[in-house]
């Protein structure tokens, strides 16, 4: 028996800098998880993933990550994805500092 589809976002790493990015509904790659398009249909999710994988000069390693609707947009549901939203964890720098007020 197959599992029912749960909401997802498309995530990848920006090819040049390695930053974690999220595909938005208007086909931009955003550093901010809550700007991602929340996908609630499996067929639409597969189409969005194909679109992401075609952006070979922009991103690498695109996949669908579980998410849920939050008050400000999609939120990660798994600790790994929550961790990826914060960037490197060795000390507060880069994304951790830049996105503090987002």
From TrEMBL:
Q: Per its UniProt record, what InterPro entries does this chain match?
A: DUF2849
Superkingdom of the source species: Bacteria
Q: Name one Pfam family in it.
A: DUF2849
Listed name of the protein: DUF2849 domain-containing protein
């Amino acid at each position: 028996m197959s599992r029912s589809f749960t909401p997802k976002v498309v995530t990848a790493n920006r090819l040049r800098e390695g930053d974690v990015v999220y595909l938005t509904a208007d086909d931009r790659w955003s550093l901010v998880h809550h700007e991602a398009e929340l996908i609630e249909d499996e067929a639409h999710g597969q189409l969005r993933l194909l679109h992401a994988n075609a952006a070979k000069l922009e991103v690498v390693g695109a996949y669908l990550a579980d998410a849920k609707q939050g008050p400000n947009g999609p939120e990660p549901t798994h600790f790994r994805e929550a961790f990826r939203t914060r960037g490197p964890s060795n000390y507060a720098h880069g994304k951790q500092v830049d996105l503090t007020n987002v």
